[in-house]
Amino acid sequence: MNKREFKSNRKQTFSSKEKRIMVEEIRSGLLSLRQSIQQHQVPGSVLQKWNRWYFKMRLLKYYRPKSAFLMAPSQPTVEQLKQQLAEAQAQLAQVKLQNTALETMIKVAEKQLNIDIRKKSGSKQFKS
Predict the structure, then answer these.
(1) Residue 100 — very low, low, confident or very high, per pLDDT cuts 50/70/90?
(2) Residue 65: what pLDDT?
(3) Which of 13, 14, 28, 29 has the most Cβ atoms closer than 10 angstroms to its Cβ?
């Protein structure tokens, strides 16, 4: 059907049930917008308007996204923050102790074996 035939037709009226059926066909994927235009002989702009209205009035009242407040984790208390700080400080002390032990072990190995273990900056890698 070409555009001239569309314009020459008298204005059609559809019941709310017919409108709902057309929109649900499009929304469910049963028909594309273009197929629905051809099948029902309704302009695309009208179908899109009905689709927006259907979404606003019918579906939007059931769509309730979770607000950012509900999705955000609860604020930690002062005691929880103090506990986290103490745990972090204990981990830091443990890591410092391990680092000191490794540094000492490297120094002892370098003295006893008379080799350089630490990588020197700017040194070239050996290619085999």
Answers:
(1) very high
(2) 60
(3) 14
